[in-house]
Write a structure and sequence with these properties.
Chain lengths: 330, 383
């Protein structure tokens, strides 16, 4: 009796926050991200600097690019665990083709896009035609992509990106605006257009909401889902190129962690695992939450294992809070 | 029909994926392909060479420049053994950090009757039954690089002096920065014997030089993770004068470049040619950053091979060598000195850092290496 009296205010508060998060996921993610940063600065005033903000901005952008395709796939009712593997392989392709020369950028870009589209196509066909869970299929294909990269490079990818390309990613305009933001000026409107203005985007939401209804409306559900995986593959490949532009040299599996990070950023941004619900604006805000959370745990100077455990627990809490949405009626 | 075909393709893909961590046959070819099929024989063959079948077991090779060079050095040492009456055939097995797979691969090597098993293990314990089986089968078993610390295993370890690497780096940081200086400490991997030994060395040096550790982290020997950790530290506004890092210093320098943050006064250590080149370029116009370059020589595998060959001839290891005995009970670890090192002011061969530019470019991400020849190993380590 006593216990329930103590717990009731806590559960009520959790319920209210959870309700707000589900009604306004993007706003909630923005509040959460800014709150985490404010707490970090309160604890460690040195964390408030132009350089730090600029780098946090850059890392948020990179994660939001990686999460763009994942958002589309989740809205369509799927899941893409090949994001990290495709990013890593695209990074290796970029350095091995460019070999320090900017003139080869277009070649690298073309090969990376082909790779992303091919992996996305295989993901799409395997999940839609065979009907196996997207989680299993994309994990397996991601693993195959990774092993093939080892086979081709023998574990030692070569080359570097061209200096102008590297500069187009890490140069800071006026000392604090990262050049990566210029890529956002192209990518963000493109993703917003695809999701909210194109016929494909509208069909994607309907497919994710209720595939049977979509089929009865004459929509080729398998085709729409496969296209979403292909877009995800291409966006992942392009993000891998930008990522290696930042780090300048490639390594095997260098961006593997982005598979999980992108998925969590998308869910934190309000996209439902059940499909049919979600916004890219929410994903960008979710990416900010992920970056700010990592930053806060580092600033608090906790041991790394404690940081990783705390990160896991906080993410579980956030995901529980965000997934109280009622399923769409089938 | 189409569905069946796709299911077959998918099944194939899944099987391939499941094989991701499976035994990887040696990327490098055996040193002596002709001898690779020869049955084990204690006596010399018609060619006057004694055939030795060597199985080199590794936790990881792909993507790790140290392990790649480690395997290549073993191959070179195996080829050189022909001058001393051995026809060493060589096979390599990689467990990809999977301890269960490592045990399975070792069991296979014992069953197949290899003469000599050289292991750079996944974990520092858990192989006692396998070691016992190898011993019963009359197979020479030596553990190289990552020291196996299970008490009473009675296995010979041959490793670089990891303690010294941490210790020398921290002492150099103290010399450059002075007492009371604030340092970041980024370790390699928790629970790994080499990393733990280095940390003991770092701690001893830090205490002697009265340095203050303001932030601790580790990078798991992963370049990207090292860069990301450093980015997080810079974003978090941690104030420091220098960085102590258990290899991968080059990845941390990249983080400073990405953020545009001024460099610290000291960083150490790493052993790749790329790190040497970074230091040359940063200090070309004026002294910008002090550093420690130390080669955790991958040649330790080649040295272990030559020590094993002497043991096969029945020679006895000297008792007055720098064994590691005060850290873990009953561990026989022969620690090799770190013979390749460089700071801003000095280097192992007396050359200036700038005289190393061509060599550093040639090395790239590879590291300067050194292994003890058959003659040197015999002269230094045996009665």
């Amino acid at each position: 009796m006593h216990n329930s009296a103590v717990l009731r205010p806590i559960t009520n508060l959790f319920g209210k926050v959870s309700g707000f998060a589900n009604r306004n996921p993007t706003r909630m993610a923005i509040i959460l991200g800014l709150g985490l940063y404010a707490f970090t600065v309160f604890q460690v005033p040195g964390a408030f600097s132009v350089q730090a903000i600029s780098t946090l901005f850059m890392m948020t952008l990179l994660l939001s690019f990686a999460s763009a395709g994942q958002t589309m796939v989740l809205i369509g009712g799927g899941m893409d665990f090949t994001v990290g593997a495709v990013m890593s392989v695209a990074a290796m392709i970029t350095t091995s083709i460019m070999r320090g020369e900017d003139g080869r950028f277009l070649q690298a870009f073309a090969v990376c896009m082909l790779l992303g589209a091919a992996v996305g196509f295989i993901n799409g066909v395997c999940t839609t035609k065979v009907g196996l869970p997207a989680l299993v299929v994309t994990l397996a294909i991601g693993n195959v992509v990774t092993r093939m990269s080892y086979l081709v490079t023998a574990g030692t990818p070569v080359g570097r990106v061209g200096p102008a390309f590297a500069s187009s990613v890490i140069y800071r305009h006026f000392g604090f605006i990262p050049s990566l933001a210029l890529y956002a000026l192209i990518l963000f409107p493109l993703v917003f257009y695809i999701l909210y203005r194109s016929r494909f985007g509208r069909q994607l939401y309907l497919v994710g909401n209720n595939p049977e209804a979509a089929r009865l409306c004459g929509i080729n559900v398998n085709k729409i889902k496969t296209i979403s995986y292909m877009i995800s593959g291409m966006l992942s490949a392009f993000t891998g190129m930008l990522g290696v532009g930042m780090l300048q040299a490639s390594r095997n599996q260098m961006f593997d962690a982005y598979a999980y990070q992108s998925l969590i950023a998308v869910v934190v941004g309000g996209t439902s695992f059940a499909g049919g619900v979600g916004t890219y604006g929410g994903t960008i805000a979710g990416s900010m939450v992920m970056v700010m959370l990592n930053n806060m745990l580092t600033a608090l100077n906790l041991s790394q294992r404690v940081r990783e455990i705390t990160l896991g627990l906080v993410l579980v809490l956030i995901l529980v809070m965000y997934n109280r949405r009622k399923g769409v009626r089938q | 029909m189409n569905k069946k075909l796709i299911m077959l393709v998918l099944a194939f893909v899944l099987v391939l994926a499941a094989c991701g961590g499976a035994a990887t046959p040696a990327a490098p070819a055996p040193a002596d392909p002709g001898a690779a099929t020869a049955p084990p024989a204690p006596e010399a063959g018609d060619d006057g060479l004694r055939p030795v079948r060597l199985a080199s077991h590794n936790a990881v090779v792909e993507g790790n420049s140290f392990r790649i060079r480690y395997e290549l050095d073993i191959q070179e040492a195996a080829a050189a053994a022909a001058d001393h009456g051995f026809a060493v055939s060589y096979a390599s097995f990689v467990a990809n950090w999977d301890a269960a797979l490592e045990v399975q691969q070792l069991q296979n090597s014992i069953n197949e009757g290899y003469d000599f098993i050289l292991v750079n293990p996944v974990s520092v314990t858990g192989l006692d039954p396998v070691i016992e089986r190898a011993r019963e089968a009359g197979i020479l078993y030596i553990n190289a690089n990552n020291i196996y610390i299970s008490p009473g295993a009675g296995v010979l370890n041959v490793g670089s002096n990891q303690f010294e690497q941490g210790y020398l780096t921290a002492r150099e940081a103290g010399r450059v920065l002075g007492p009371g200086a604030r340092v970041i400490m980024m370790a390699a991997r928790e629970g790994n014997a080499a990393s733990e030994l280095r940390q003991r060395g770092f701690e001893a040096g830090i205490e002697e030089e009265q340095l203050v550790v303001v932030h601790e982290s580790f990078h798991d020997w992963n370049y990207t993770q090292a860069t990301e950790r450093m980015l997080e530290i810079l974003n978090a506004g941690v104030e420091f004068d220098g960085i102590l890092v258990s290899q991968n210093a080059n990845a941390l320098i990249d983080a400073f470049e990405i953020t545009g943050t001024p460099l610290p006064r000291f960083i150490g250590y790493h052993d790749g040619g790329n790190f040497m080149l970074q230091m040359i370029e940063l200090n070309r116009e004026e002294r910008v950053i002090d550093f420690m370059m130390l080669s955790n020589s991958p040649g330790v595998g080649g040295t272990a091979l030559n020590i094993g060959l002497h043991q096969m001839l029945g020679r006895e290891l000297r008792a007055d060598l720098p064994y590691w005995s005060d850290t873990w009970d009953d561990v026989i670890a022969l620690l090799l000195p770190n013979s390749i090192w460089m700071t801003y002011d000095d280097s192992w061969d007396g050359r200036s850092i700038f005289d190393w530019e061509d060599e550093a470019r040639r090395l790239g991400s590879d590291v300067p290496t050194h292994w003890w020849t058959f003659e040197d190993a015999g002269a230094h380590f045996f009665y």
